[in-house]
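Listing S7. Sequence submitted for prediction.
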Amino acid sequence: MIYIKNGMVIDPEEDRIYGADLVIRDGRIQRIISRQPGELSQPGRDAGEMDIDEVEMTVIDGNGLAIGPGLADTHVHFRDPGFTYKEDIETGAGAAAKGGFTQIILMANTKPCVDNPDTLSYVLGKGRKTGIHIGSCVNVTRGMAGKELVDMEGLSQAGAAGFTDDGIPLLDGDIVKEAMERAGKLHKPISFHEENPGMIANNGINAGKASDFYGIGGSPREAEIDLVKRDAALALETGAEVVIQHISSRETVELVRKAKAAGAHIHGEATPHHFTLTEEAVIEKGTLAKMNPPLRTREDRLAIIEGIKDGTIDLIATDHAPHSRQEKEQSITKAPSGIIGLETALSLGIRELVDKGYLTLPELFKRMSTAPCALYHLPGGRISEGAPADLVLFAPEETWTVTEEFASKSANSPFIGEEMPGVVYYTICDGRIVYKKI
């Protein structure tokens, strides 16, 4: 049993923050004891009312801490199987817990890729041993080749959380339509990486100031817009739950906004790096700020923030993408795209969205916990009596400095050296403490 006293509970469903103690037992929130300002907690007395011996309790003093539902990231790469020198499921889970995440949905672009029951079983089996909830999407097409759909029905029965070929855009519109229709019948989300490779000279670098700085061709915004136009229309036609991943351009935000207004079950996803950074970071940080789709302009960043604010973008996901130091030390055109993000995501959300007045803390948690849990039919995402005891306890105003000492195997982050608010003290999953700040 865990008794959390003197905390400030974040309620995303009611958009409120209130003082309370939480009693956790058998993996669930057994009781919420609201507190008036200045009222002292008495764990022994309150536990006694439920015939629980105080000796059995682990008491956590939440004074100065906010208590939110455990974060849920529905776009993560743990590189396992196949690329475990970058990350594996165990180290990735450790990074997630340190960042306040209790729910993770993995992408399927591993080696072998997750287009078959055996690889899915391997991933889910390792995930069950980590202490947090780890699910996985499966591929849309066999071998991520874009030509033949996987056994979507069979893989759904085997435990797939959703479908995606993330990392490789799907170019065949007929394949996309059929995949949406089948995903819709299975009531599973289907997610799309929207970059038309035929329009791109070099991935990961915006065609504009950044590409000019390096004297190379880049990735134009039209590459994203082109496929989003198609998939927004197909989402409306098929009725599927469609996720437009890692939105990078203002035009895409507007396309998703219009599709939602027309009745499409379409979801916008944004990463912390896309609502925080611009292509200026690629000029300053080099390959540490190279990602697909690329960082774009200030106007694009602000449009993404506005989309998050008005609900057009309803999912915040990290696209946690570990790479080795040696890989990132290659030239700008040879280094792989992607950054890690699980350990900095909450802090960036607080700094860039809450502290600057775009969202309240409950609204941030709605986009980082409640909405992704609802879309993927996951437990968690709320704090109420009887709900799963998946929680993060953090100090919103306390600051920390990002160093290369990550729980992740990799350290490919453009935020190293920056001071950020939001220090995670505890992550609790299924009523067990899976991370505690030392």
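Caption to Listing S7: primary sequence and predicted structure tokens for the chain studied. The longest helix spans residues 221-238. The chain has two domains: 2-67+386-436, 71-375.
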